[in-house]
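Record type: monomer structure entry
Structure origin: computed from sequence
Chain ID: A
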Amino acid sequence: MNRVISVYLKLRLHSTLALVSACLLSATAVYAQPKAARPITALNYAKSKRYKISIEDKTSWRYMNPGIRESLHKDIETALNSWLEHIEARGAVSLVIRFDPTEKGRATGRSVRSSFLKEEGGHRIYEQALVAKLLNRVDKPSNDFDIELIIDPGYLKELWFDPEPTRRISSIPRNKLDAVSVFMHEIGHALAFNGWLDQTTGKITSRGLSSFDRNVRFIKDKFYFYGPHTMKVYGGPVVLGKSRNNYHHLGDTMDDDSRLVDDLMNGVVMKYQKRYFVSKLDLAVLKDCGIPCRVATSQGP
């Protein structure tokens, strides 16, 4: 009888040990599983309710150093906030970043769509759909992105990504462009600095007029911006780009007023080792394009 009990106990012990071992192996297998890879395409960053930034991979994103990825996102977020903090509107916006070759091998920015505003002087006036979204003038928001920022993969080596973009005090290498400034410039085009006038003749095209175009005059082979808020800040009409860049920029040559050549939205040169800031002149242009803005108190630290 004792022998039977002993055998029974041994069998129960072996069974229990086997069960415990199986559980341990199962738990180990669960914790040993590799973490799911973070998707590369359409990475979403919902940092606030006011905007969303997504990054769509085409060429460079998957090969980019993870630290640079994070810095790029933070720099774009700072650039977007640099404009939004001045705009008196609460609509939410979304931005997509694409890595694709561009015509000039740099970066470009635009509002993905335009939105009809009104008829004026026999012409249809359109504003950037981004603005309509910000001002809640869109009844049925589109599922598309509001801002498209395209960065040429080769241009990345020209950019310096600020490790503390919200402070903007770190030293910029002498042979690099400040990425925050570059992104701010392109977002400025998505907000207002854009249009469809013929770049050679200044004539109105079949696409109509943008809210920027309605303030532009073509005089003696030059483009000028005649918006009342802008002229009040600047002291007169502002010459726009033609010889070195398109008319969606302030200033035309290096000989123009330094207030234009050194402005964030200039079309003459983006200087190495220099930070740019949203200026009172930039905000005046936005006001002339129908965007309510608070006046900038300064143009830098």
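Annotation 1: Residues 43 and 185 are 23 Å apart (CA to CA).
Annotation 2: Helices lie at 2-32, 66-84, 129-134, 179-191, 228-234, 258-261, 280-288.
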